[in-house]
Amino acid sequence: MDIFFNELSVTIAVDDNQACEWLENLAKLGKLLKQIIDPLSEDAFSFRRNEDFAEQKITSSQTIREFLQSTFEFSDPVYIFLLAIFDSPYIAANDPLKTTYDLTSITINNQDHEVTGIAAAYLKSSLTVSFDSNPQWDTCRLNVLVNRLNGQAEIITEQKQVNHASKNQHIIDCHLPFLAQLYDWSSYSPKFDPETKKQTILPLVELCSFYLGEAIETVWDDFYQKISQLDTNERIREIKNIAEKISRIHGWKKATGSLENKNIGRVIYTIENSDFIVSVDTQHGEFEVHKNRKGNNHLGVISFDGKRFKESIGDRFLSL
To answer: How far is CA 286 from CA 33, 196, 224, 297, 303, in A?
Structure first.
């Protein structure tokens, strides 16, 4: 499945500083999206164009390509990444949805916008990205009217909710569960083996990391350093919050019924298609892994980043 990013607000910058900021933000966002999707599946991410994005004006006197070449060094990551966008393929003439891409427009506040720029695609299953040049689009989701032609050359207008991605927090707050759906969960077989340090309970650790920040190499170390300095109530609140976000990405279900009632005060999640149940260690920020059986069901402990393991504890169990 391709995700198409739609540039909706290519306007002329007020000055060179603003134009530079727009391109830096665009490159930063694009790299972030690519980094998120890389671990999910091959071909999950793709840029497409239905016009030459690089030749659109970004200042009164320069196109995006000209401004990029005159402002950034060839070795600059911004230049390298955006150049790759410019080289991304046009929507092919034989693409079965090409007509839809070409003839689709968006209506916002009674104003029509062509779906042009970096990519153009039918918006039912896409994210949109802008240069932050239009404040009205600075939101996680947009309610828009999508106008398209049907097979009888009639204009069909549908109300759609379009996911926005102009800022990192929009991706983190709104889109990670959507991106997690791209993972091939059909092959997901949860395993937990502290002895061999192999486990697949947290296959999308990279996505979980984006809830905390962009520095993937240190983000979890920073998290554990942070919670060690919090008072008890703040620490518990922060740990529960992150555990809940991780559970959303992986589709875990919050315990209800007898499992909840027999373990008062515990935060517990069940994992579909497995015999595993996890409870949250709100003191250390870890998941305690249990087998779905009565008696001594504690298998071990795994940290939120999947890097640290602790052996099972004989007298620790969930009441089932």
So the answer is: 27, 18, 10, 17, 4
